[in-house]
Amino acid sequence: MRHIEKKNSPEVFQDFILKNSPAVWDDIHKSQLRIYEDICEVLLKEQNNLCGYTELPLNNKHIDHYHKRVLYPEKCFCWDNLIMATLDDDFGARYKDKQINRKEIYNEIFNPVVDNRKHSVNPVLF
User: Fold this and answer.
1) Spatial CB neighbours of 77, under 8 Å, sequence gap ≥ 6
2) What is the 3-state secondary structure (H, E, C) of 40-102?
3) 85 SS3 class
4) What is the top-level taxon of the source organism (predicted)?
5) 29/82 Cα distance (integer angstroms)
6) Which of 41-52 are b and which e, b meaning 16 or more Cβ less than 10 Å from the residue's Cβ?
7) What residues contact residue 89 under an 8 Å CB cut-off, 6+ apart?
């Protein structure tokens, strides 16, 4: 897994957050589809159209919150917490979410936005 160099979030995303103070992800995902699509486009460019966790081409994709919203609601709209990922039960975002049920586990897994380790270090991957 390689490090993701995060760019600036789309201006439309920043403006929406400042003007609307959204409370839940569905405030963008369900009701602001154009903003959601803009976010997807920027994330895809940042990640070279690859899953942020597996580096596989993105087929069944979605925006994943690296830090789960249920455990970290304050990070819901944090740009560095958003990763375009494969939505699969055996790997990618869904698999990661099934493995994490408490905050302490985040200390043991690779965060592709923050960590910049080489593959040889063998961080725990999901």
Assistant:
1) 17, 22, 25, 28
2) HHHHHHHCCCECCCCCCECCCEEEEECCCCCCCHHHCCCHHHEEEEEECCCCHHHHHHHHCCC
3) strand
4) Bacteria
5) 13
6) ebbeebbeebbb
7) 95, 98
Name the token pair of 102. 């408490």
Q: Output DSSP code: residue 81.
A: G
The pair of structure tokens assigned to 59 is: 């087929």
pTM: 0.86
Helices (H), 3-126: 11-20, 26-29, 33-46, 92-99
For residue 112, which of 66, 63, 62, 48 has the smallest C-alpha distance? 66
What would the two tokens of residue 72 be?
A: 């970290």
Cβ–Cβ under 8 Å, residues 3 and 112: yes
- In the prediction, which pLDDT does 48 show? 94
pLDDT, tens digit, for every residue of 35-75? Answer: 999 999 999 999 999 999 889 999 888 999 999 999 999 99
